[in-house]
Amino acid sequence: MNIDIKSPLKIVYDKILASERLSFEDGVTLFNSPDLISIGKMADLVRKRKNGSNVFYTMNQHINPTNICRNKCLFCAYYREEGREGAYRMSIETVRSKVLERIEEDIRELHIVGALDDGLPYEYYIDIIREVKKLRPEASIKAYTAVEIAYLAERSGKSRRQVLQDLKDAGLQALPGGGAEIFSSRVQSKLFTEKLPAEEWLEIHQLAHSMDLRTNATMLYGHIETIEERAAHLVKLRETQDKSGGFLTFIPLAFHPENTKIDTLPGPTGVTDLKMIAVSRLMLDNFDHIKAYWVVLGTGIAQTALSFGADDIDGSVVEEKIYHMAGSKTAQMMTRPQLEKLIKETGHIPVERDALYRIM
Ligand code: V47
């Protein structure tokens, strides 16, 4: 396919045609360009090289066992302080009943993420994985962000490797990509002071990869980050993937301001959402997949993103809390026919996967 790409994007296009790696400066050029359609066409070209017409989705269930968190990130509408209205902590029995409620459905991925809850013992986090795996031996379990892994190590006095090993022994197969936010100490010092620093987030993912656990990566965008910080985040992920190779997918997460401590910020526009997907596809040449998470983008933008570099739309989800508490107006779940219809409408082929991208 020959696309008519004008300067300054022409230099980037020539590199893409030659399958050359883009630089940090190329990333900045792309983010600064208003030519969304050209960027989208280039990303679609790369996406087709990697994944043809396939668009992946999964039948999954989200479980958020606790929202009591000591970190108090300003962008988060999900966390509560102990004893405050809306704070909750599920018993293991409640987690079991959540899984049992949907046991007749052929769910292939369990997505389990909680918070840094000082009121729960170490064993609780391990037992959840063991219990869920017992009830759903055929499903793949993706659970706990690197931030939770670091917290569990600190709480228990165990090494991060031992925490991952305990979780793996209980049935864990992958880590979700959350907690990365934006790899910038400037933004961190303003919005998420208590959180794990970027270097440690990256180290935990490399450690997980070395133990045969696969992981995802994210970037929270559309708040106070600069274009340069976005490009630098992508370069850091790419460098880490060069070293340890265990990232499965990258998920750009659009900031939702409602009910957060920074709700005067407007959040990203549709153009920013699509550009974020496309530039991620172009920069992350060593990532197989880019996910357009419909819960955060809305189904319209997520569907459009499939022609702007994304090849995954996430899944059925069921009972999402983090974005709905931050004002997301999307549905709580989608059925297999709904997901397949969304994908087919864009001219792509729906391919059902589990958390490890094994085709069902
Ligand atoms: O780390 C929190 C983000 C993340 C808000 O790995 C917010 O497959 C926008 O990582 N507006 C958690 N974003 C979600 C996450 C995720 C989701 C789906 C799939 C996968 C995967 C991972 O959500 C947090 C944070 O970056 N977040 N609050 C907010 N108000």
Q: DSSP strand (E) fraction?
A: 5-15%
Number of DSSP helical runs? 14
Mean pLDDT: 95
Output the structural class: alpha/beta
What best-fitting shape do the alpha-carbon axes yield? globular
Q: How many DSSP-defined strands? A: 10
Please bin the fraction of helical residues.
Answer: 40-55%
Q: Could you give the order of strands across the largest sheet?
A: 5-6-7-8
> First CA to last CA: what distance?
31 Å
H/E series, N to C? HHHEEHEHEHHEHHEHEHEHHEHE
Rg computed from alpha carbons, rounded to a whole number of angstroms: 20 Å
Main beta sheet? 4 strands, parallel
Keywords:
binds ligand V47, 10 strands, alpha/beta, three-stranded parallel sheet, 14 helices, four-stranded parallel sheet
What does this structure look like?
The chain is α/β, with parallel strands linked by helices and 360 residues long. Helix content is 42%, strand content 12%. It contains 14 helices and ten strands. The mean pLDDT is 95. The structure holds ligand V47. The site of ligand V47 has 21 residues, from β6 and β7.
Task: Please summarize what this structure is.
The protein is of the alpha/beta class.
